[in-house]
Design brief:
about 210 residues; TIM Barrel; eight-stranded parallel barrel; alpha/beta
Length: about 210
Protein backbone atom coordinates (compact mmCIF):
# COMPACT_ATOMS: atom_id res chain seq x y z
CA UNK A 1 0.00 0.00 0.00
CA UNK A 2 1.43 3.33 -1.09
CA UNK A 3 1.97 5.80 1.75
CA UNK A 4 0.23 9.18 1.43
CA UNK A 5 2.42 12.00 0.20
CA UNK A 6 5.13 9.64 -0.99
CA UNK A 7 6.09 8.99 -4.59
CA UNK A 8 6.61 5.33 -5.28
CA UNK A 9 10.31 4.50 -5.04
CA UNK A 10 11.87 3.40 -8.30
CA UNK A 11 14.22 0.46 -8.46
CA UNK A 12 17.34 -0.35 -10.50
CA UNK A 13 18.83 -3.80 -10.95
CA UNK A 14 22.50 -3.29 -11.74
CA UNK A 15 25.21 -5.48 -13.19
CA UNK A 16 23.33 -7.49 -15.81
CA UNK A 17 25.60 -9.69 -17.92
CA UNK A 18 23.48 -12.51 -19.40
CA UNK A 19 20.41 -13.00 -21.56
CA UNK A 20 18.87 -14.78 -18.57
CA UNK A 21 19.25 -11.56 -16.58
CA UNK A 22 17.36 -9.65 -19.26
CA UNK A 23 14.60 -12.25 -19.23
CA UNK A 24 14.32 -11.86 -15.45
CA UNK A 25 14.01 -8.07 -15.51
CA UNK A 26 11.61 -8.14 -18.45
CA UNK A 27 9.34 -10.23 -16.24
CA UNK A 28 9.82 -8.21 -13.03
CA UNK A 29 9.83 -4.78 -14.74
CA UNK A 30 12.13 -2.60 -12.61
CA UNK A 31 12.47 1.04 -13.68
CA UNK A 32 16.17 0.82 -14.55
CA UNK A 33 18.84 -1.79 -15.20
CA UNK A 34 22.59 -1.26 -15.22
CA UNK A 35 25.32 -2.30 -17.63
CA UNK A 36 28.73 -1.96 -15.97
CA UNK A 37 31.39 -0.80 -18.43
CA UNK A 38 33.98 -0.23 -15.69
CA UNK A 39 36.40 -2.93 -14.58
CA UNK A 40 34.36 -5.36 -12.51
CA UNK A 41 33.35 -9.01 -12.40
CA UNK A 42 30.08 -7.72 -13.89
CA UNK A 43 31.78 -5.77 -16.68
CA UNK A 44 30.32 -5.92 -20.19
CA UNK A 45 31.77 -4.49 -23.37
CA UNK A 46 29.97 -2.43 -25.98
CA UNK A 47 29.04 -5.41 -28.16
CA UNK A 48 27.69 -7.44 -25.25
CA UNK A 49 25.66 -4.49 -23.99
CA UNK A 50 24.23 -3.93 -27.46
CA UNK A 51 23.11 -7.56 -27.68
CA UNK A 52 21.54 -7.46 -24.22
CA UNK A 53 19.82 -4.12 -24.86
CA UNK A 54 18.20 -5.51 -28.00
CA UNK A 55 16.22 -7.91 -25.80
CA UNK A 56 15.35 -5.41 -23.06
CA UNK A 57 11.76 -4.25 -22.63
CA UNK A 58 11.77 -0.62 -23.89
CA UNK A 59 9.87 0.43 -20.75
CA UNK A 60 13.04 -0.25 -18.73
CA UNK A 61 15.81 2.33 -18.96
CA UNK A 62 19.36 1.03 -19.43
CA UNK A 63 21.99 2.80 -17.34
CA UNK A 64 25.63 2.71 -18.37
CA UNK A 65 27.98 2.63 -15.37
CA UNK A 66 31.39 4.22 -15.96
CA UNK A 67 34.51 4.99 -13.94
CA UNK A 68 36.69 7.80 -15.35
CA UNK A 69 35.74 6.73 -18.87
CA UNK A 70 36.72 8.48 -22.08
CA UNK A 71 33.88 10.90 -22.77
CA UNK A 72 33.72 10.02 -26.47
CA UNK A 73 32.92 6.40 -25.62
CA UNK A 74 30.00 7.46 -23.43
CA UNK A 75 28.71 9.77 -26.15
CA UNK A 76 28.91 6.93 -28.67
CA UNK A 77 26.98 4.55 -26.41
CA UNK A 78 24.29 7.19 -25.89
CA UNK A 79 23.93 8.06 -29.57
CA UNK A 80 23.73 4.38 -30.53
CA UNK A 81 20.99 3.99 -27.88
CA UNK A 82 22.81 1.18 -26.11
CA UNK A 83 22.32 3.18 -22.92
CA UNK A 84 19.59 5.61 -21.93
CA UNK A 85 21.11 7.06 -18.76
CA UNK A 86 24.73 7.79 -17.78
CA UNK A 87 26.07 6.83 -14.34
CA UNK A 88 29.47 8.26 -13.38
CA UNK A 89 31.01 6.28 -10.56
CA UNK A 90 34.56 7.60 -10.56
CA UNK A 91 36.34 10.91 -9.98
CA UNK A 92 34.47 12.85 -12.67
CA UNK A 93 34.29 16.58 -11.93
CA UNK A 94 31.81 19.33 -12.86
CA UNK A 95 33.66 20.14 -16.09
CA UNK A 96 33.45 16.50 -17.18
CA UNK A 97 29.71 16.42 -16.46
CA UNK A 98 29.08 19.70 -18.26
CA UNK A 99 30.94 18.40 -21.32
CA UNK A 100 28.64 15.38 -21.40
CA UNK A 101 25.56 17.55 -20.93
CA UNK A 102 26.51 19.70 -23.89
CA UNK A 103 27.00 16.61 -26.07
CA UNK A 104 24.02 14.35 -25.34
CA UNK A 105 20.55 14.83 -23.81
CA UNK A 106 20.75 11.72 -21.63
CA UNK A 107 20.19 12.10 -17.91
CA UNK A 108 23.29 11.84 -15.71
CA UNK A 109 23.72 10.18 -12.33
CA UNK A 110 26.82 11.11 -10.30
CA UNK A 111 27.86 8.61 -7.68
CA UNK A 112 29.29 9.77 -4.35
CA UNK A 113 31.10 7.26 -2.17
CA UNK A 114 30.33 7.95 1.49
CA UNK A 115 32.61 7.21 4.43
CA UNK A 116 31.59 10.09 6.71
CA UNK A 117 29.89 13.52 6.61
CA UNK A 118 32.89 15.10 4.88
CA UNK A 119 32.22 13.01 1.76
CA UNK A 120 28.71 14.41 1.27
CA UNK A 121 28.96 16.60 -1.85
CA UNK A 122 25.74 17.42 -3.67
CA UNK A 123 26.54 20.37 -5.93
CA UNK A 124 27.30 18.43 -9.12
CA UNK A 125 25.44 19.60 -12.28
CA UNK A 126 23.77 16.20 -12.69
CA UNK A 127 20.16 15.04 -12.75
CA UNK A 128 20.53 12.57 -9.89
CA UNK A 129 23.04 11.71 -7.21
CA UNK A 130 23.87 8.16 -6.18
CA UNK A 131 25.17 7.35 -2.73
CA UNK A 132 27.26 4.24 -2.16
CA UNK A 133 29.65 3.05 0.53
CA UNK A 134 33.29 4.13 0.35
CA UNK A 135 35.83 1.35 0.00
CA UNK A 136 39.53 2.09 -0.50
CA UNK A 137 40.69 1.10 -3.95
CA UNK A 138 37.20 0.17 -5.15
CA UNK A 139 34.73 2.49 -6.87
CA UNK A 140 31.56 0.55 -6.13
CA UNK A 141 29.78 -2.76 -6.16
CA UNK A 142 30.97 -3.71 -2.68
CA UNK A 143 27.53 -4.64 -1.35
CA UNK A 144 28.37 -2.80 1.87
CA UNK A 145 26.18 -0.27 3.64
CA UNK A 146 27.19 3.08 5.13
CA UNK A 147 25.65 5.36 7.74
CA UNK A 148 22.53 6.39 5.83
CA UNK A 149 21.71 9.10 8.37
CA UNK A 150 24.44 11.18 6.66
CA UNK A 151 22.16 11.69 3.64
CA UNK A 152 18.90 12.21 5.53
CA UNK A 153 18.64 15.91 4.59
CA UNK A 154 19.64 15.69 0.92
CA UNK A 155 17.04 17.45 -1.25
CA UNK A 156 18.28 16.46 -4.71
CA UNK A 157 16.73 13.20 -5.96
CA UNK A 158 19.12 10.34 -5.38
CA UNK A 159 19.73 6.66 -5.97
CA UNK A 160 20.76 4.69 -2.88
CA UNK A 161 23.12 1.74 -3.30
CA UNK A 162 25.17 -0.57 -1.14
CA UNK A 163 23.96 -3.51 0.90
CA UNK A 164 20.27 -3.20 0.06
CA UNK A 165 18.43 -6.51 -0.01
CA UNK A 166 15.05 -8.13 0.52
CA UNK A 167 15.63 -7.90 4.26
CA UNK A 168 16.03 -4.12 4.51
CA UNK A 169 14.53 -2.49 1.39
CA UNK A 170 11.20 -1.55 2.99
CA UNK A 171 12.91 0.06 5.98
CA UNK A 172 15.26 2.00 3.69
CA UNK A 173 12.42 3.34 1.54
CA UNK A 174 10.24 4.27 4.52
CA UNK A 175 13.02 5.98 6.44
CA UNK A 176 14.95 7.77 3.68
CA UNK A 177 12.53 8.05 0.74
CA UNK A 178 15.19 7.77 -2.01
CA UNK A 179 14.21 8.46 -5.60
CA UNK A 180 15.50 5.01 -6.56
CA UNK A 181 16.89 1.91 -4.86
CA UNK A 182 19.95 0.45 -6.64
CA UNK A 183 20.53 -3.27 -6.11
CA UNK A 184 23.13 -5.66 -7.48
CA UNK A 185 24.59 -8.27 -5.12
CA UNK A 186 21.36 -8.16 -3.09
CA UNK A 187 19.58 -10.03 -5.89
CA UNK A 188 22.33 -12.56 -6.61
CA UNK A 189 22.81 -16.19 -5.65
CA UNK A 190 26.30 -17.64 -5.99
CA UNK A 191 27.41 -14.55 -7.93
CA UNK A 192 24.63 -14.60 -10.52
CA UNK A 193 21.40 -12.66 -10.79
CA UNK A 194 18.56 -14.65 -9.23
CA UNK A 195 15.23 -14.20 -11.09
CA UNK A 196 13.14 -14.90 -7.99
CA UNK A 197 15.08 -12.39 -5.87
CA UNK A 198 14.70 -9.79 -8.63
CA UNK A 199 10.96 -10.35 -8.78
CA UNK A 200 10.62 -10.28 -5.00
CA UNK A 201 12.59 -7.07 -4.49
CA UNK A 202 10.81 -5.22 -7.30
CA UNK A 203 7.47 -6.35 -5.82
CA UNK A 204 8.50 -5.05 -2.39
CA UNK A 205 9.57 -1.70 -3.82
CA UNK A 206 6.11 -1.34 -5.37
CA UNK A 207 4.43 -1.69 -1.98
CA UNK A 208 5.46 1.78 -0.81
Amino acid sequence: MKLRGRDMAKIKICGLTRKEDIDAVNFALPDYIGFVFAKSRRQVDEHKAMALKSHLNPAIKAVGVFVNEDIEKIIRLCKSQIIDVIQLHGDENKEYINTLKSSVPNQIIKAIRIKDHQDLKTDYPCDFLLFDAFHPGQYGGTGKTFDWSIISNVKKPYFLAGGISLENILKVIEQYNPYCIDVSSGVETNGYKDPQKILDIVSLARLL
